[in-house]
Amino acid sequence: MNVLGIESTAHTFGVGIVADDGNEIRILSNERDTFIPKQGGMKPSDLGRHHSEVAPEVLQKALIKANLNIRDIDYIAVSLGPGIGPALRVGATIARALALKYNIKLVPVNHGIAHIEIGRFTTKSKDPLILYLSGGNTIITTYLDGKYRIFGETLDIALGNMLDTFVREVGLAPPYVVNDVHQIDICANNGGNFIELPYIVKGQDMSYSGLLTAALRATKNNRLEDVCYSVREIAFDMLLEATERALALTGKKEILVVGGVAASVSLKTKLYNLAKDWNVEVKIVPREYSGDNGAMIAFTGLLEARHGVTIPIEKSIIRPRWRVDQVDVIWRLSEN
Questions:
Q1: Which end of the chain, N or C, is surrounded by fewer C-beta atoms within 10 Å?
Q2: Phi and psi torsions of 278, nearest 5°
Q3: Are 320 and 88 in contact, with CB atoms under 8 Å apart?
Q4: Measured between alpha carbons, how far is 24 from 19 in angstroms, rounded to an integer?
């Protein structure tokens, strides 16, 4: 079985292909092109234009790398949400067109579930507590009775979005990442004086918007490097407090970190220290699969296709607010 996955929920258009020969699942290709604005944030219309322009080349590269023809594909998996409408529509339109022209079944994939499943696959995690940390999501979750249940999440903006917005507003980005290091870490590593900023954890949930506003205000009267250091430490510590409570509640022995923020060296260090205190293991998705990518869509599509999950083309609408706890994770029912 060969599954082609299309990802286009935000700034990245990606195509990945996975193969299942009955004994082993292999990732054959994982091609992508990421939109980087020249200045400011991302405009949804610019994302749609970018994805439309790069899609043919990314698709062709993925097929060539996998050494396959489109007629060798058994299923087309597409991320239908959550995400940004104009970006989602490009991927969905291309997936529908390919499915219709070549008579290939379409598989609907939730973007967040795909991040989790590629993390479990690449790290060989069995039953972890999961930190799903990306530009648009901050979620603490684990699997229970057929769904991924949410034990904590951001009440407003995501951790990754907060850090990106801060470095952009103070003139450090774009680019947001240099030599695989986020600008907040580059800046914070030259600071060290702690500045009092809002620390907001409500039960199991976190709020980052107040921290962002206060941090931007603090740059007027403090060294930028010290503000970077303080905002990073507070933001990550808020996440760790909620994570520690979730560990106590669930009794899990693994922490799996997925999503683009998983690449932060500072966050990794804090998580390893937390894991040592609780005698649990930390597993972090490999960098190639931490950001948005087509391979994670193809892999999750394969899991769904194995269990007969497909969708008619006329019903394959995009779902910009599709939550991970709304998905029936039927492929895990047979694992336990």
A1: C
A2: -105, 0
A3: yes
A4: 8
Percent of the chain with pLDDT over 90: 88
Provide the CA 215 distance to its chain's centre, in angstroms: 25
Distance CA 161, CA 11 (A): 13
Q: Residue 34: what are its φ and ψ, rounded to 5°?
A: -105, 130
Task: Reply yes or no on whether the pLDDT at 167 is more than 90.
Answer: yes
Tell me if 325 sits within 8 A of 133, measured CB to CB.
no
Q: How far apart are CA 229 and CA 109, in angstroms?
A: 37
Q: Cα(112)–Cα(79) distance, rounded to whole angstroms?
A: 9
Q: Say if residues 106 and 311 touch (Cβ distance below 8 Å).
A: yes
Count, residues in the chain: 336
Q: How far apart are CA 305 and CA 326, in angstroms?
A: 18
The answer to whether residues 240 and 199 touch, using CB atoms and an 8 Å cutoff, is: no
pLDDT value, residue 335: 76
- Rounded to 10 deg, the angle between the 294-306 and 111-123 helix axes is 90
- Cα(59)–Cα(234) distance, integer angstroms: 41
pTM attached to this predicted model: 0.93
8-29 pLDDT, tens digit each: 999 999 999 999 999 999 999 9
The per-residue b/e assignment along 34-66, b for 16 or more CB within 10 angstroms, e otherwise, is ebeeeeeebeeebbbebbbebbeebbebbbeeb
Per-position DSSP letters for 118-164, written without gaps between them: HHHHHHT-SS-EEEEE-SS-EEEEEEETTEEEEEEEBSSS-HHHHHH
Q: Give the whole-angstrom CA distance, residue 145 versus residue 9.
A: 28
What is the spatial distance between Cα 294 and Cα 306, in angstroms, rounded to a whole number? 18
